[in-house]
Input
Amino acid sequence: DAGITQSPRHKVTETGTPVTLRCHQTENHRYMYWYRQDPGHGLRLIHYSYGVKDTDKGEVSDGYSVSRSKTEDFLLTLESATSSQTSVYFCAISEGRVQPQHFGDGTRLSIL
Amino acid sequence: RKEVEQDPGPFNVPEGATVAFNCTYSNSASQSFFWYRQDCRKEPKLLMSVYSSGNEDGRFTAQLNRASQYISLLIRDSKLSDSATYLCVVNEGNTDKLIFGTGTRLQVFP
Output
């Protein structure tokens, strides 16, 4: 399995609090991605990164920000969490553009 | 029309059966195609890439039909362990982004 670690694996928090999810990879891949998965919607891209400090928005980026200061770490931040952001969040990595992506185990986030 | 569409199923088949899933995509500029499987409450895992000439990996065969803009996955001699959701994945035109279908659920019974 690809060396991808997501933390935390589970989190419950309250509306209005900030939340940061971490994705750590040991594969030295250039591309990293954050997705959310909800019933009926499949996987939707939030943000992605194509290098250190290089990021771009996905289709559901509102309410989320990201940072990548090192090749191995990609952080997803919810500045002020809302109940609509309750979801399962997956990090993925790939060697290059439109190459197969490999996923972390996911983070189950509940916003009450 | 959704960018990537799949029949959600479920497909309920007995062990040993052959089952096929189709997936249609809307952007004719798409160039990269994949099938992933996802077990309940787990992460998606790459099953196979789909090449223009079609490709096979053991009991699994993937086909691409550019004219009709669909890809297919054929599973022969189904096993209980094949029970999962199968995700069709297509790149968004000429961009770096992959679009995931919502998946087709397969249940193999004894």
The longest strand of chain A covers residues 42-51.
